[in-house]
C-alpha cells in the first residue's frame, strides 16, 4: 500500500481548510485594522487588504507544495501522523509569524507617515 498518496491527500485537505479559514479571518479582521491606520481612505485600505490576502494565499500554497516535495517516504500509519503533524505545525507557526510581521510593518509604516503629515 502506498502511504504517500494517502498522506498527500490528508495533508492537502487539512491545509486547504486551514489556509482558507485563516485567510478569511485575517481578511475580515485585517480590513478593520488597516482602516484604523488610515481612516480617511477606505478604498486604499480595501486594496491593501486584498493584496495582503493574495500574498498570503501565494506564500502558503508555495510553502505547501515545497513542503510536500521535501517529504521522506512514508512507510506506515505512524509516519503518516508524524509527517502530517510536523508539516501542519510548521505551516501554522509560519502563518503566525507572517501575520505578526504584517501587523508590525503596517504599524511602523503608518506611524512614519503620520510624522510627515
UniProtKB/TrEMBL annotation:
<feature type="transmembrane region" description="Helical">
    <location>
        <begin position="88"/>
        <end position="110"/>
    </location>
</feature>
<feature type="transmembrane region" description="Helical">
    <location>
        <begin position="47"/>
        <end position="68"/>
    </location>
</feature>
<feature type="transmembrane region" description="Helical">
    <location>
        <begin position="6"/>
        <end position="27"/>
    </location>
</feature>
<keyword id="KW-0812">Transmembrane</keyword>
<keyword id="KW-0472">Membrane</keyword>
<protein>
    <recommendedName>
        <fullName>DUF4234 domain-containing protein</fullName>
    </recommendedName>
</protein>
<keyword id="KW-1133">Transmembrane helix</keyword>
